[in-house]
């Protein structure tokens, strides 16, 4: 059964969201007001009330949050589904020390809810295989997570 909302991440969620986790990020489309969903892995918790993520500097997400800053991050892990709602802002145009053109977005957390259906438990961890050059993938991951931590 879904738990009541809290206003911060548990210690387990903070530890879980230290990079390379696959999450869904929902924003409101700036043009038509419909939900806009992204699947991302360059996200980390910097503490119990803040998430940071790296996003392509040309991403529609940046337009969306400039118009309406409300977002939801859905995390599938730790045996459950968790919805994290908050307000997003672009805090930097280009992440320092990152080869790619990546902007930094910070989410101030308003609510954290367990949204797993009654009687359900996730038994497997989501894993993504990077289909491009593995050495380059590791380089980008290292650059981005270093930048997000500063």
Please supply descriptive tags for the structure shown above.
about 150 residues; alpha+beta; Pnp Oxidase, Chain A; seven-stranded antiparallel sheet; about 20% helix; about 40% strand; globular
Q: How would you portray this structure in words?
A:
- It is a single chain.
- With 150 residues, this protein is an alpha+beta fold.
- Helix content is 19%, strand content 39%.
- It is built from three helices and seven strands; from the N terminus they run H-E-E-E-E-H-E-E-E-H.
- The chain has helices at residues 11-16, 60-67, 134-148, and strands at residues 23-28, 35-40, 43-47, 50-56, 70-77, 80-92, 102-114.
- It has a seven-stranded antiparallel β-sheet with strand order 2-1-5-6-7-4-3.
- Strand 1 and strand 2 (35-40) form a beta hairpin.
- The protein starts with 10 loop residues before the first helix and ends with a helix.
- The mean pLDDT is 95.
- With strands numbered from the N-terminus, the spatial order across the biggest sheet is 2-1-5-6-7-4-3
Which regions contain 5 or more consecutive residues with pLDDT less than 50?
Answer: none
SSE class: alpha+beta
Major β-sheet profile: 7 strands, antiparallel
- Distance between the first and last residues' Cα: 37 Å
Give the mean pLDDT: 95
CATH top level is Mainly Beta
Radius of gyration: 15 Å
Strand content: 35-45%
Named CATH architecture? Roll
- CATH topology, anyone? Pnp Oxidase, Chain A
> What string gives the helices and strands in order?
HEEEEHEEEH
Q: How many domains, in number, for the residues?
A: 1
Number of strands: 7
- Residue share in helices? 10-25%
């Amino acid at each position: 059964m879904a738990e009541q909302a809290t206003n911060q991440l548990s210690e387990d969620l903070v530890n879980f969201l230290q990079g390379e986790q696959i999450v869904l990020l929902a924003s409101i489309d700036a043009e038509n007001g419909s939900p806009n969903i992204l699947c991302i892995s360059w996200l980390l918790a910097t503490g119990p009330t803040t998430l940071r993520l790296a996003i392509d500097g040309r991403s529609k997400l940046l337009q969306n949050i400039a118009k309406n800053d409300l977002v939801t991050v859905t995390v599938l892990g730790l045996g459950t589904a968790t919805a994290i709602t908050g307000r997003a802002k672009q805090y930097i145009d280009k992440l320092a020390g990152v080869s790619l053109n990546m902007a930094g977005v910070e989410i101030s957390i308003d609510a954290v809810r367990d949204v797993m259906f009654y009687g359900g438990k996730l038994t497997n961890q989501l894993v993504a295989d990077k289909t491009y050059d593995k050495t380059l993938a590791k380089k980008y991951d290292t650059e981005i997570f270093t930048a997000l931590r500063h």
